[in-house]
Amino acid sequence: MRAILIPLFTLLMCGCNSDIFVDDFTPEVTDITMSGSGEVRTIRFKSDDWTRLRLAVSHTDGACDITVTPAGGSTVPGNILDGDGTITVSSPLTDLTVTRRGENVTVDVRYAIGHDTHQLVWLTAVSDVTGEEHMVSIDIPCVRGMEIEEVDYVLNSWGGGPVERRDIDALALSAGSPGPISWTPTFPAGIVSIYKMHTTSDYEAIFSSLVGLKIPVPTNTNPRFPEWALQGDSVSVSTYQSFVGLTHYPPVPTVTVNPGTQATLWADMETVGFWPEMTVRNTFTGERYKFVVWLDIEQPTNYVVTSEDI
Questions:
Q1: pLDDT-based confidence at 192, cuts 50/70/90?
Q2: d(CA 179, CA 256)
Q3: Where are the alpha helices (DSSP H) in the chain?
Q4: Ranked by mean pLDDT, which of 2-6, 23-27, 43-47, 203-207 comes out on top?
Q5: Per-residue pLDDT band at 45 (split at 50, 70, 90)
Q6: Which pairing describes strands 133-141 and 31-33: parallel, antiparallel, or unpaired?
Q7: Which of 2, 279, 301, 308 could form a disulfide bond with 149, CB atoms 3.0-4.6 angstroms apart?
Q8: Distance in angstroms (rounded) separating the CA atoms of residues 259 and 174
Q9: Is the predicted pLDDT of residue 55 greater than 80, yes or no?
């Protein structure tokens, strides 16, 4: 009886521990997806006598440093590994290591940082004996991994460019109105302003990974002089021209509207330039980066009222 139970118990234990191999990919697999935040997987290639491993990576996060370290050897730039060893891909936004031990290859994605982007990796095993090649492509959806710690604003330019007069609101009275009225427009969502942001190419990849995150922006505190302060307005980081409703402006004037006329309130929008210095932190490593961003934003400096008969 005991002789029967021992093999049966062994089979049950193997069944219970089958999940040990869930991260291993069989040779038939050619496309896999891995997390951009701390995932390790093992790949088995078709051939058991393959000679070398070649790595290619998409440069969605700018230039990556790719190095090869053969087992027992020194690290050198390159992407082809003969025999056992490691291939490492590193940049401010990527930390990925591929390790070969015999017929198995372990892929360790420490982090792949970005916003709405993917890091793509291709591993190709080559056999000098059979001439066979087997490529496995790895899709890594990038994750948030950079946080904005501080934004220090410096005023670069104020006015001096073409002024755009923008129609922001109007009020019409019928001819039968008894007399003039006073009207003060309200803008619960703020006056629509246009802003543009960019930085140097050295930090473009890091900056792009911040898209969508909110930062405070200065707004005008005096309609005649370049006096600015942070008053609670914010914009989303963007690499394109964007629109925002900012609420803190010079006081909106009270308008007198005569019977039978339409009064229109206009805003003279001037472009103001800032040099914000961003301090950004990699949440995986704690490493910090400081870089300057160019920010141009149109904001009202003067209001004009026009009146016409209706």
A1: confident
A2: 10
A3: 2-16, 204-208
A4: 203-207
A5: confident
A6: parallel
A7: 279
A8: 6
A9: yes
